[in-house]
Amino acid sequence: STARIKDFHRHDELQELAVSFNQMLDRMQRYIDQQKEFVGDVSHELRTPVAVIEGHLNMLERWGKDDPEILNESITASLQEADRMQHLIQEMLDLTRAEQINVQYPNAVTKVADVLKRVVGDLAMVHQDFVIRLDMDDLPEDTEIQIYQGHLEQLLVVLIDNGIKYSTDRKELNISAGLGQAEVQIIVQDFGEGISKEEQKKIFNRFYRVDKARTREKGGNGLGLSIAQKLVTSYHGKISVDSVVDQGSQFVIVFPALTKSQAARLRKREAT
Ligand code: ADP
């Protein structure tokens, strides 16, 4: 009867093994499906700039040789499309990288106030027609979070750039940061065109644009917010939006705050 009990256990183990094997296959299948979808999306997005360049080259071939106006126009437009493709490719790389971030920078710590001051200062310099306010009254100067500095910069640039891109006549941005009980909150508020409730659910999806034609004019490709979201969640944070059409939008990022000793421990590990 001991043999039978042993058999019985073996049966149990096999069963467990089969279940976990099945789960692994499911996960792999999901991953493969996601990759396929990504490749499909990317091809779709690259098709437009390629078609535009092709159109201009055709025009050049037919008429451009004798018409300097067409020649100039087509060259300018083609260069602009090529530039757009470069940008798109860079952002697609950023997006795929953003998924593996915690592996790359597990021990990075960053002082929030320093990065905010620098990014806001730089962007205010470039966009002098905007009033960009930075309120850090509720953020102790030495507040730190677990994130690679370059990623916090990238995140802020995406949100502030959007606030500028989708502005209307009120050219103002309010950026604020504060330390709560156990979290650091950063808010980027604009007074631009706003986003409807329906659209708010979709803007974090990759390649999603509320108005394809118009955002294309503004140089958007629908990747900024999906990169931002991937970055935030890979550092255990959260990003959300609150917006009213024609009044403006408010993007809120929340990160877990680090205690002094946690920050010190991470910094020590990063140094070794
Ligand atoms: P894009 O490169 O097109 O700006 P994003 O992923 O950053 O891509 O944003 C997706 C879409 O969400 C944008 O195309 C735009 O329609 C909308 N959106 C993002 N930020 C704002 C904002 N601050 N105000 C209004 N609409 C916005």
TrEMBL record:
Membrane listed as a keyword: yes
Keyword vocabulary terms for this entry: Kinase, Membrane, Phosphoprotein, Transferase, Transmembrane, Transmembrane helix, Two-component regulatory system
Lipid bilayer topology: Multi-pass membrane protein
EC number of the protein: 2.7.13.3
Reaction equation(s) it catalyzes: ATP + protein L-histidine = ADP + protein N-phospho-L-histidine
Domain Histidine kinase positions: 41-259
GO molecular function: kinase activity
Residues covered by the HAMP domain: 1-33
Keyword Membrane: yes
The protein's name in its UniProt record: Signal transduction histidine-protein kinase ArlS
Organism, scientific name: Lactobacillus xylocopicola
